[in-house]
Structures are given as C-alpha cells and as structure tokens.
Write the structure tokens for this entry.
Amino acid sequence: MLTRTVIAAALIAAGIATIPSSAYAATARYTPERICGPGFHRVKDGHRAMKTPGGAVFGHVYLMYSKRAGKNCVAAVKTAYLGVRSVTGAYLEVRGGGKSQDQQKYRYYAETGHLDGSWKCVRYAGWTRDPDGRVEAWGGRQKWGNCLG
C-alpha cells in the first residue's frame, strides 16, 4: 500500500496522469445529467443508494429536474456488474400527473423519460439485480417530496 502511494505521488509530482480503469471510465460516461439530458440537474433530496437487504450498494438513483422545461427525470445508475446485462429499473410518479417506469436488462443504467412536474410532488425509485437475478438492490423515496417545482 505504501509503495502504491509513493508511486502515485511521484507520478503526480512528475505531471504524469494515470489512465482510468474501464469500470471508472464507463461510470463517468453515465452521469445522471448525461442520462436525463441538457438542462437537467440533481435536486435536493433526490439521491439514494440502491442497496441490497444486506447493505451492499449496487448503484445509485437520482431524481433530476429541468426548471426551464418543468420536467422531472429519474436515472438509476449501476455501480455493480457494470457492462453485464442485469435487470435494472427506474420509476417516477408525479402526484396528480403521470407515471413512468423503465425496466429491462441493462448494462449501465435505466431512465424514466421526462414527466411534467412543475410545482407538483414526486416520488421515485431505482433498482438493479445481480446477473442471476437472485439479489436485488433498491433505493428511492416512497413518500411525496420535492413539491415546490
């Protein structure tokens, strides 16, 4: 461990950048902002880890909002089993409005699409499973929130 730290410090001091791992590069490409699209931003109380019953984190779910468009979007981004197709889903519900759900065997993320939600309460969720479908990780908010647009 100390050797790696010394080598890393020497590389940084020399101005040599390290190449990120393919797993890091894959997750960096799939940010919730990129998934939901231009103008969407993370909202307060709009992030939850997708955890298994045992507490392992398989990814994160994000509630996103575009003030200009008045629309919400949910992105469920995997951090476990990247690049491997496994059931992954995202859910968004707008109080007095629509519902959107996306669930398939995805490699990196699921996304709900955009729903009108200006000045309306929302609830959201995201989930993913291991490739065998035996262990599910879930995250989200079951209560209504983010009601002020």
